[in-house]
Amino acid sequence: MTAPEISISQVEKDGVYTDEVSPVISVTDTNYNKDGISISVTGARGEAGSDDVAYSAETVSNGEKYSYSNFKQSENVDDNYTLVVTAKDMAGNETSQEIGFKVDRFGSYFVLGKAAKASVDRYYTNLSDGDIVIDEYNVAGFADSDVYYTVGDKVVNLESNEYTVKEDKPSNGWNKRSFTIPADTFKDEGVYSIVIHTKDAAGKETDNEVKNAAVKFCIDRTAPEYHVAGVENGAVYENTDSVSASVSFHDNLALGYADITVDGVKTRYEAKDIEKLGGEVKLDDIKASAKKHTIVVECFDAAGNGASDNGSEITFTVSSNAIQTAMAEAGSISWIIILIIVIVVLIIAGIVIFLVRKKKKDNN
Asked: How many whole angstroms separate alpha carbon 175 and alpha carbon 302?
């Protein structure tokens, strides 16, 4: 018995197609069985759906011809495909044919590395997250590439020794290479845009900006500043029930957040909170106490730079009377010692008084 015959045309094994993609399959057999036909087209990424890749059937002598419509012109359709056809006739004879081909209409796509994505998401950065890595993926294979960046009105083309390119083994028919640009390439403050322009083996040209993988960020290495007003370190504010203080903030570009800790209680103020307060956080009603008060400020800008005096402690005393002042200045440990001494003195005095009175009583 003769097995069904399968013929595949319009696509070839390992072919790369940059325009029309319309495979045609013919299946014939003297005992043709329409229900014994199985046809599948599977992409390695699996992003193309049935609406992107569809076919129609027509009857021919001793069989049928299946014609695919031109694959949809969409970036998600670019892929490494496997076409599998299986046919079984009425007598149970079975045959199959498989062919792999590539669709490359839109060229490469790009994925940002961790540090690059963090810098783009944050926009303001000091590149402390590391080097800029951009991965390129292409189904046809790589050819030429150019790497450059803009800062202000200046365009800087990078030489091949100013960045590295690492090409990995193909995975699922997709080629990958990684461009790594050292963070110290971007020394000066300013707004940078990085462009990787490439041409693949099929002649398709593109770049990361066109493919929604733009890398744009603002280098900021200037630390923010803050100023505490209303109280001074080591100061004593007497004969008052409370005092007020304030903390003002400034940055050359954009604040990130500030933590203000008053007497051990920390409060975080995001940039939007500080902006609503006019750039100044007021610390009202710091009450008189027998203990010293402390204020600690830590401020960071949107790029992650910290103020030079972050964590410096401001200690001061607020008292409504001399006793509170003395207790606060002496400190809790000193007062415990003083209290113990007073108790000991009182006990000794009590014993002396008791013994004197007892002696007088005995003499009488």
From this structure: 36
